[in-house]
Amino acid sequence: MWHPIDQFLFHRIVGETIVAYAISFLVPLIGPALFIRFVGIKGLRNVLSYEARDTPIHRLDPRLKLLYPVFIGVCSVLLSWQWTYVLFGLTLVPWVLLRPSMVRVRILTVIVVAPALLSIWSQGLYATTPHDKLIFAYPVTMFWVGTVGLSRAGLVYGAHQAARLLVTSSAALVLVFTTQPSDVVWATTRLLAPQRIGLAISVGVRFLPSLFERLNTVMRAAEVRGYDFTTPEKWWRPRQTYGYARRMVRALPLLTVPVLVGSLRGCGQMALVADSRAFNVHRTRTTYRVVQWRTEDKVALAAAALVGAGVAFLVATGHGRF
Q1: Which pLDDT score is estimated for 1?
Q2: Lowest mean pLDDT among 100-104, 116-120, 154-158, 278-282
Q3: Of 63, 214, 217, 315, which is least packed with CB atoms within 10 Å of its CB?
Q4: Could you give phi then psi for residue 120, rounded to 5 degrees?
């Protein structure tokens, strides 16, 4: 039964072209489809904003949480890709302590894992040479896409890059999820960094949630005026999927212009607020906050020391990247 189909798809130029089109264009659409289906604008807006809770990670010193992504990123660069996945497993420990809801876990999984899988797939297509062992060789009709086919060596290289993407994303989202933007500014000044760096990090942490808030507001206003943004109930039906994609493409000018104008106005207001509060006039800033180290801070520092010692040992014994 499968023999004629196999002959057509893998031994005829028409069938090979169909498979190549699916590999190049259909499979990469799975990530955006999962994002729209399980996350959406509202979910991304909620997950990229600070949530006030009483957990050991929330109670940590902001300086430790600010240095945490930097420390994890440096460790991921030094380690080989196999040990980087072990490091990614260690970055999941703070998430266990945070005890996020299942809805947030699902959203975070899609945000972190989907780009990593797409990175593996894209490297499998384009990090190839004609001498690599190909899982599927593209026919001559696909010469214009710039790749010879899907390579096993490219997939392995993509796994290298995805490991570091997973580690840095997991660590950075812990900072965003558990730290107020004002605490980020306080932490940078206490780490003897310029005040502008603290303001830039604070604006970066706050920018995405506010951007998606504006986008969600514009979409709701357009829906009140009769525009349809409803997602298809069944994605495998081409008519519904095509109709949704067509509506979103036509709505791009309707959405981008108000969001861009609102972002520019917000930047202007933020600059006025910073000037009114005499930002960066004095080298040292005063604060009413008195942060004292707690048991959680000492445990976190000890855990970081153990991880750093383990990374140094692995690098010294030849398990590092260099």
Answers
A1: 45
A2: 278-282
A3: 217
A4: -60, -45
The 10s digit of each residue's pLDDT in 166-222 is 998 899 888 888 888 778 878 887 776 777 777 777 777 677 677 777 888 888 888
CA distances from 21 to 15, 25, 156, 235, 306 (A): 10, 6, 22, 19, 48
Distance CA 15, CA 7 (A): 8
The owner of tokens 């006030």 is: 52
Residue 288's CB is within 10 A of a number of other CB atoms, namely 4
- For the chain, the distance separating the N- and C-terminal CA atoms, rounded to the nearest angstrom, is 51
What would you measure as the largest C-alpha separation in the chain, in angstroms?
Answer: 79
Q: Give residue limits of the domains in the chain.
A: 1-179+294-322, 180-291
Which CA distances in Å does 263 have to 90, 184, 207, 268?
37, 21, 9, 9
> For residue 57, what is the DSSP state?
T
β-strand partners of 79: 320
Tell me the DSSP string of 171-202: HHHHHHHH--HHHHHHHHHHTT--HHHHHHHH
Query: Is the CA virtual torsion 149, 150, 156, 162 positive or negative?
Result: positive
- Give the dihedral of Cα atoms 208, 304, 310, 172; nearest 10 deg: 0
CA 261 to CA 269: how far, in whole Å? Answer: 12
Is the four-CA dihedral 269, 271, 275, 278 of positive or negative sign? positive
Burial 40-55 (b: 16+ CB within 10 A, else e): bbebbbbbbbbeeeee
Can you give the pTM of this predicted structure? 0.75
